[in-house]
Write a structure and sequence with these properties.
The complex is a heterodimer.
Chain A lengths: L1 E7 L2 E10 L4 H9 L7 E5 L3 E4 L1 H13 L2 E5 L3 H10 L1 H4 L1 E2 L1
Parallel strand pairs in A: 2-3, 2-4, 3-5, 5-6
Antiparallel strand pairs in A: 1-2
Chain B lengths: L6 H5 L5 H52 L13 H4 L1 H17 L3 E8 L4 E9 L2 H10 L5 E3 L5 H7 L8 E5 L2 E11 L5 E10 H50 L18 H47 L3 E5 L3 E8 L7 E8 L3 E9 L3 H20 L4 H14 L7 E9 L4 E7 L5 E3 L3 E3 L19 E4 L4 E6 L1 H4 L10 H8 L6 H16 L8 E8 L6 E4 L5 H12 L5 H18 L4 E9 L2 E8 L6 H4 L13 H10 L2 E7 L2 E8 L9
Antiparallel strand pairs in B: 1-2, 1-6, 2-3, 4-5, 5-6, 7-8, 8-17, 9-10, 10-11, 11-12, 12-15, 13-14, 13-16, 16-17, 18-19, 19-20, 20-22, 21-22
Helix pairs in contact in B: 2-4, 2-7, 7-8, 8-9, 9-10, 14-15, 15-17
The chains are: A alpha/beta, B alpha+beta.
Chain lengths: 95, 671
Amino acid sequence: MKIETTVSGQTATIRPEGWLDTQTAPELGQAVEALDNNVTDIVLDFEKLEYISSAGLRQIVAIYKKAHSLVICHVSSEIMDVFKMTGFDKRLNIQ
Amino acid sequence: MKQQENPSSKKKKYGSFLTFFIVVFALAIIITSIACFIISTNTVMNDIKNNASGTAYSVSGIISDLYNANENQNSGLLQGSSFREDQRMTRISHLLHYLCKDMDLTYLYVFDVDEENNNLLYYFTAAADDEMNKKVSEERGFGTVVNVDPLPQNILNAYHGNTDGGLEQYSNQYGDVYSWVYPLLDTDGNVEYLVGAEFSAESIQNKIIRNTLWFCLPIVIILIVVFTVMMLIIRGKLLKPLKKVSKKMRHFIEDKDTAQPLTLQANNEVGMIADSFNKMQSDINAYLSEISTLTTRQVQHQTQMEIAQRIQYGIVPAKTDLSERAYQVYAIEQPCKNVGGDFYDCFLRGEDELCLVVGDVSGKGITAALFMVMTKTAVREKLLGGLSPAEVLNKVNDEICQANPEGLFATVFVAILHLPTGQLTYANAGHNLPLFFREEIALQQVDPGIPLGLFEEAGIINAEVLLSPQEGILLYTDGVTEAVNGADRFFGDERLLGAVKGAADAKQAAEQLKKAVEAFCGEREPFDDLTIISAFYRERVPQLQLESNLAEFDKIKQEVMNMAGEASIVKKLLLVCDELFANIVSYAQADTIEFYCCKRKKDYVLMMIDNGQAFDPLKDADATKEFDDWDTGGMGLSLVKQLAKTLLYRRAGNRNCLLVTISGDHELPNQ
């Protein structure tokens, strides 16, 4: 999976592209792991994300726990459905 | 329309009973006549004889008076010549002549006999007829001697003192005569002279005839009158009524409908016949109409049953034997004598679905048969329209309730076997529980529903089960469970289960059961139809065979995308597959995973079968887990549950089978 990462001060913006499923989910985790320790705010830009499965969701939970703040933006309607089903929309900051 | 007279009866001419009477009468008359004749003859001859003897004594009286008054008593006629000159002779002749006339004699003569010489010595001879009198007076006058050889016996007898008279008959120049001769005795008892009285045969015959007639005629006339009267009476009172009865009898059948009773006014045997005939007529008519009604009813009933049977036979095949790669179906239908309205149906819907129906209609005969046809057709039509079993039954129920004047109902069971996956969807409308052949052979508890045709809004619901290959079902009607044997026992559920033990396919199961029922019933005739239909799931057609490896998911992805095409639902489908697949790979410890997917009407069906340890993913999931705890894996299953329309898990034959149905609608079914 292609993941684009942009760091700006303490904030890192990660843009996954394509399918975030069981196979590709670890890559997201690795992308976050690769960030510097001073990066505390994560922005997940899901504009190019077509699909997410529970593996991807688990990654998001892990990121949420680690980071100081987490924002998810540009969520497609389908992925929003998934967030709704799992109650993520209540817990996470989704824009 | 007058019936043709029986040709044989036309040819036969009937005589009359009266002929007999006439013959008898004729005989009677003849006999009477003969009797009269005989009696007359006797009477006449007696009369004549009396006449003769009477005359003889009169003669003697006359002569005595005239001659013996003044003479010596001993002097007889033989004393000579003083006679001849005497006026007394003339007087005597006259007297004799008139005596003849009076006494109706033909001849009368007084004479003597010279026996030695066979001579007759005449003294006086008279005849009734005047002319003849003159003649005989001259020819046989006083003193005439006639030689007669031999002398007639009566003359001789009289000469010797016989006072009998002695009838003799002879012919001489004076004609045919009957003669009586009497001796006249003097005071000493000696024969003084003889008197002969003669009657001509002719006069005697005339007398006899006259007498006969006088005697006969009245009798005959009376007989005739009596006979005629009797004949008329008999004809009127007996023969005519008999003819009437006979005529009525001959036209009995053609007059049947307008038959009037015979009216013969009679208080005797004739009346008896008329009354008996009338009774017989009304008896026969009543009997005929009873038979007619009975026969009609019987014929009607028979016809009904025949037609119902023909309908049943025509619509429901007696046997079905289908054997395909994915399934085997075997069905038997044995209608009983009084066709009971059972039916079954089995057919493919599309390429992937096998539909099975079994039904039992209440009642018998044509109405039940037609109701059965209607129900069977409606169910088939709705099934082919794509509805689920419950929907089919509910809809058919509503239709039937709209048009059910006879108030019939039908119990029906419908099952659809989805051949790619083995998913069996079924619904019950008051019918017998189905027999399921799975880990064990058992009656499957089903919501009973309600028979079709009773109430609208039946509210029948679907049930689902997942069949593995080599598993099957058997449907039947209560012609099986309620079959009776000679001891009035029912076949029952236990025998049902016992009968199919060991059966490995549809044909075995059905045949075993049928034989068991037949053996149970023995000689007892079945009163209900015997219907058995069994279907076994044979083989799942493989679609994808995968290793238990996450990387294999791409293949699934490909398969799903091929199936679903551009539908926006694809991502949801993949999400479900993803979660399930990941779970199996992670936890089932399986070697291989089989994957099936197909579109079924608007829904999508996904199936995963792995050969790992018994693992029911549905049991594990707990939707109320805390958000923070979700990275332990429950999230995926929660998603699946929320996305799926139905989820079925089955552990069979060392396989975990998981079947998911996802609705093609965009709304999320379970939030």
